[in-house]
Amino acid sequence: MAGRGGADPVNGRGAQGRGSGRQARRFQPHSLPTRIGADPRQARWADAMKTALNREQISLPALAERVVGPLDLQGTHKLRRWLSNETTVPAHAIIELARAVGAHESDMLAAYGLRSPSISKLVRRAEEAEEREQQLRAHCAQEGRTTGDALFAAAAAPGGRWSVTVRPHWRGRRHRCHFADHVLLERVDAISERADAERDFAEVFERTAASWDATPLLVEGLPVGPLPPLIVHRFTAPHEPTAHHAPTDAPGVGAQGVVVTGLQWTGSYTVAALLAKALGWGLGSFARAARSVHGGARLDFALADEIMQDWLRRPDNSPRRVWAHVLTEPPGPTAPSARLLGDAGPDVRVIMMVPEPELIEIIAALSGAAPAELAAQSRAWGELLAPHPRLLHVPAPAPRAADGSVLRADDPRFLDAYFDASVDAAFDALRRLAGDRPVSALVPEQARLSDPFAALVAGGAQAASTGDPAAT
């Protein structure tokens, strides 16, 4: 039945969504070798494709479903003729079909003769090297996230020219977390200069993604030094998905990844970190990824947009990841964030943090902008990134005291309340991602055992969202 150019006899009725055992019984291998005909190159490619299809037990109807979007196929007619070497397969289809069966596109192009085997091997080696580099970067990021302060102290010890003071920075009342470390550097044998610190601690800056903390916020207990304090992020530092999480341990988000976006000071980084903790997913930042390319230099906005576009195009290349993104460009239809996030595919969920009016007043005071201008920007972004089932608007509440009064940045309670407001926003985002299910359904079992916030979501979401300290 499969003798006509490797055509699969399965008619596709009920092939998707049934038990894997039933699919395996229905599958019949595609016949090899392919008739050479007038094009031996396409016969070689068809043999390579059928080998991959047989290995993965993919029928032609199932393959057609996987490529119906990029190749605009109606049924299996074209596939059958390509694989039977009756009509010429276009080059772009070779790439999409390779991805659909889990084969390397370079190998399939080489099988057709469109790329030499030696170039294909070189591409594979380059990709393997890139993957190893990403793993090393992830390891360094994790190391810096957990031991950043110690790395500065260790780097200062051999020369004895720098004094290093570390102040752990904790945030939150209802959910306390070690948010970051503040590192104060002082040159003991000369006048302290930023350029000297950046030169002497260059490797540590890169490994920890530390930056000079210029935020106009009051950090209680932080001594005044000759240089601004460095902030080494722990809670919001990029990290890989937790090792216990597997694709089958599905939290049911219905997507390969999530992007949390919003104006500066709306909590997008903190909410993204909280979602990653609850889901057991990795945490990323397009801006920090762009900085890491240049070793911590000034942010290259164009590169950050490129990284975002690359991930949005193929989120399955880095699945189970929450990305933080701040809307820095002026709102407009041609703005990269509007084009890319507004048209994000079905494998991506976008969460936009929409500031409450009281929070806009606070952001204006922190940034030096006019409240009316910020309110107009927020409205414009809300229209450009209008809500729909895959793009969710979540209110970003203002920091409030226990009596409900809004706290300003000069209040000692501000940072704790600011973090608590992000906790509430993260619960709200999780409720929207969960839909009709309980929020706890999104949290993998091992995440609730290993992370306090994941445990809070699983066991105390309702009480925490009411502001009851007893919930934690």
UniProtKB/TrEMBL annotation:
Residues 1-37 are annotated as: Disordered. It comes from the Bacteria. This is Uncharacterized protein.
